[in-house]
Design a protein that fits this description.
single chain; 419 residues; alpha+beta; five-stranded mixed β-sheet; four-stranded mixed β-sheet; 15 helices; globular
């Protein structure tokens, strides 16, 4: 018989495993370095409003850190990380490297990534150059071929192809540029060899089924509780990289080996699973209820799977950055506001610099309660705004639009009190 969980239990589990229940009064570099291993993957994206998304993910789970501390934690020469295609382009703990062998094989089988297949001469030249040490595409002649922005040079196409199939790896970024190196020069041998590994499509590593199982299991580590689609979405174990049959078999195997436990969650219709360890901790009353109060990046792993966000928090959330401005409802980069265990509002942020005065601008604040938000929710949004403003060293906070407009005065007052 399945373990029965209330929706409140599912929220508590999710927020605890995501590291969003408490934040230290003052975080150290060690706290920053602990974020990635606990999440399993941190998504990268080019959009930067308050900061890059990977910096916002760390900001939401720590306190008093700088953007530079995040970069050091992820990209320092001693950082045990690499970048690869997971949920999207993500920073991953180095020990995850073997489990993307199936994905590397899938790219090799397709014989393309996103652009043209580079010539054998280009690939040979890249390998020879990287034999002398790590380099960016710029170091090797440039990333673009000219013309439109997505027009890559053949060298860049070659680097991305070799990255996709595993001959090359990225363990560092400098000025947002990937630094490429030969895999054998940057990944410890313990993560590139195994006694029972196999070769297919020229890619050596664990079998495809082993990879799927480990990625599903790692997905559970960052979710705590989830449906099959939730678990598969964490590392995008679907489409070109695994069949539904492989995912189903992986979950069956993990249940039979007691690494996943079938559960039922109040209001959820799909088959759902949970981590046995987190269920034990929940049963002992050792999980923290509620949450920290913070703005979340739209690319935060708590809100990756939009259907799951709806089931957990009753929020229909979509990123509108790629929606024409006239059709946006919440704003270009509307960030969910987490407070007291719930997603209570969205804030579309911005910043303005006039001389020496820096202003954090809440271009649009939209409460989930469209009638009359609770006083506690107004206070929560105010706290989130003040904390974000402080993080970017803003001298002032300005609120442009509030929905509903009737709470503008209350929100403005709450912000002034919290400053």
């Amino acid at each position: 018989m399945n373990v029965q969980l209330s929706l409140a239990d599912a929220k508590t589990v999710a927020l605890n495993v995501q590291g969003l229940v408490t934040t230290p009064a003052k975080s150290s570099l060690k706290d920053v370095q602990a974020v990635l291993p606990s999440l399993g993957a941190v998504q990268l994206d080019t959009i930067s409003t308050l900061a890059r998304s990977h910096e916002l993910v760390h900001y939401s789970r720590t306190h008093g850190i700088s953007r530079q501390q995040v970069e050091v934690a992820l990209w320092a020469d001693s950082a045990p990380t690499f970048e690869y295609w997971s949920h999207a382009a993500c920073v991953l703990p180095i020990e995850m490297y073997p489990w993307f062998a199936a994905r590397r094989r899938a790219f090799a089988a397709r014989k393309s990534v996103w652009h043209n297949m580079p010539s054998s001469k280009t690939l040979k030249n890249i390998r020879k150059r990287l034999g002398d040490g790590p380099a960016t595409a710029t170091d090797m002649g440039g990333a673009k071929a000219g013309g439109q922005w997505w027009s890559w040079s053949e060298t860049k196409e070659g680097l991305e192809w070799l990255l996709a199939i595993g001959d090359v790896v990225c363990t560092k970024r400098v000025g947002w540029r990937r630094v490429y190196s030969l895999t054998e020069m940057s990944i410890p041998s313990e993560f590139t060899s195994g006694s029972h590994w196999v070769t297919r499509q020229g890619v050596y590593g664990p079998s495809d089924q082993e990879c799927v199982e480990q990625l599903i299991l790692d997905g559970m580590r960052s979710l705590g509780v989830g449906t099959m689609s939730d678990l598969a979405d964490v590392h995008r174990v679907s489409g070109h990289h695994a069949t539904r049959a492989q995912v189903t078999k992986a979950i069956t195997n993990l249940v039979e080996s007691h690494q996943l436990t079938p559960v039922s969650v109040e209001g959820w219709s799909e088959a759902t699973y949970a981590s046995p360890e987190i269920l034990s901790t929940l049963a002992k009353g050792k999980l923290t209820t509620g949450s920290t109060t913070t703005l979340l990046s739209p690319f935060d792993s708590l809100v990756w799977h939009r259907d799951r966000v709806s089931r957990l928090f009753d929020m229909e959330y979509r990123l509108e950055a790629y929606t024409p401005a006239a059709k946006r409802v919440y704003g270009y980069f509307a960030m969910p506001v987490l407070h007291n265990g719930n997603l209570i509002a969205r804030v579309d942020p911005g910043r303005e610099n006039q001389g020496r005065v820096k202003t954090f601008v809440a271009k649009t604040v939209t409460f989930e309660s469209s009638t009359k938000p609770k006083a506690a929710d107004i206070s929560g949004v105010a706290q989130a705004l003040v904390r974000a403003g402080s993080w970017i060293a803003a001298d002032d906070i300005r609120i442009d639009t509030v929905k509903p407009e009737s709470v503008r005065t209350a929100l403005t007052t709450a912000v002034r009190k919290a400053l």
